[in-house]
Amino acid sequence: MIDSGDVSLELTAGDAAFLLSSAAGELRSGIACELLTIAVPVEVLGDVRAVWPASGVQRVPRESMLLPPVAAFAARMLEGSANEVSGFTSYYVERLLQEMLQGLLLGASRAARVPQTQTTFPLAISVIVAQHSDPELTAVAIAEEVNISLRQLEREFRKRGTTIRRELRRVRVEQARKMLGDPDYAGLSITQIAQFVGFSSGSSLARAMSAVGLPAPSAVRV
Fold this sequence. Notes:
Helix content is 50%, strand content 8%. The chain is built from nine helices and five strands. The chain has a three-stranded antiparallel sheet, with no helix packed on it. Strands 3-5 form a two-stranded antiparallel ribbon. Helix 3 (116-131) crosses helix 4, helix 6 packs across helix 7 (190-196) and helix 7 (190-196) crosses helix 8 (202-211). The model has no long low-confidence stretch (mean pLDDT 80). Residues 122-222 form the HTH araC/xylS-type domain. Keywords: DNA-binding, Transcription, Transcription regulation.
């Protein structure tokens, strides 16, 4: 059972929930049980945080296709030793877990059916954050994920002085910038980093960085 303010959430075997660390919550159980906890800085979730409920508690739907693999993946990581994982491998492990958690939270938030007028834009940003590495991600696909027409979604972005394409570029560039500035990924070429974050090539990344006022990838690389 999770109690957080006016919200009480009863969990049974196989259930899962997100709990914001800043929420005044209490976790208790009347029987002996095994609890798997994944603690991450809230910043890891990036713009997906925008869809977090005010109570700080969000149940994950049991029918979520991501829940079993996330739990299995996290449990498997507990079996290994941190010394057995190289810095390079560690990045991909963390990246995979981060994207899984983003997907879980996004799916849970959509299932909660919060009024659309309050969540259309943050949900769309969440989709971009979670799927930006997919080079086939389009504005149409994002609109379908948010369950709104493309025209309506474009209108929501215009209200905030931006566009879907611009936000997708922003997220990809920011992720590439972080990787270029981290010596752990010096083994990856600029083209590989560009493709990893969703661009088609190193030159595409360079153009995108120039468009947002950043220097060339080679100048950012440590």
